[in-house]
Design a protein that fits this description.
Elements lengths: L2 H24 L2 H17 L1 H5 L4 H30 L10 H12 L2 H12 L4 H8 L3 H19 L12 H9 L7
Helix pairs in contact: 1-2, 1-4, 2-4, 6-7, 6-8, 7-8
């Protein structure tokens, strides 16, 4: 039997049993599943060594328990630090306008979304946005302009013709197959 076959057979045979056992330890079924999966991942890292174990299921259980215990310790440390720091001063705005803005931002291309968020939400100047994203200041300005146009279109109540893009360069490209690269 190959090492991969052994791991596959063990996974099929004892995954559920280990999850139930770890659920009793952690009190959280999702945590138990993640810990058991992490144990199998660690077995896959060194399959030959794992195949030589006398009791591989016991090894998986021990690794999974250690994962749960480590995560629990880290959570306790984080909770203590968070209590020292105090509650977060930022209150998430749940107004319909704010939710609509967030939804519209998610629709934008990644470059525009990152640029708009860093400039307007984090309040970074164009030069810092450029340095953070590793692009030129001109690229940042272009993304800001196009991102604002796209956001305006996404946030308006009217439904304009979907074939017409507010960016004339895109319409020129769509109409004649050439982009105006002068700008």
């Amino acid at each position: 039997m190959s090492d991969d076959d052994l791991i596959s057979e063990l996974y099929a045979g004892c995954f559920r049993r280990l999850v139930v056992q770890l659920y009793a330890v952690s009190g959280d079924v999702n945590e138990a599943q993640e810990a058991v999966q992490e144990a199998f991942v660690r077995a896959l890292v060194a399959p030959r060594r794992f195949a030589r174990l006398e009791n591989p299921e016991a090894w998986l259980r021990r690794v999974a328990v250690n994962v749960v215990r480590s995560r629990h310790r880290r959570r306790q440390v984080l909770n203590r630090l968070m209590r020292r720091i105090g509650p977060s001063p930022v209150v998430v705005d749940r107004s319909p306008e704010h939710l609509a803005l967030l939804a519209a931002l998610r629709e934008l291309p990644e470059g525009q979304r990152h640029t708009l968020a860093l400039h307007y939400l984090v309040d970074l100047p164009v030069t810092e946005v450029a340095a953070t994203l590793g692009v030129s200041a001109g690229t940042v300005k272009s993304r800001l302009s196009r991102g604002r146009q796209a956001l305006a279109k996404l946030l308006t109540d009217s439904d304009p013709d979907p074939d017409v893009n507010p960016d004339p360069d895109v319409n020129d490209y769509a109409n004649n197959g050439r982009a105006d690269v002068r700008s």
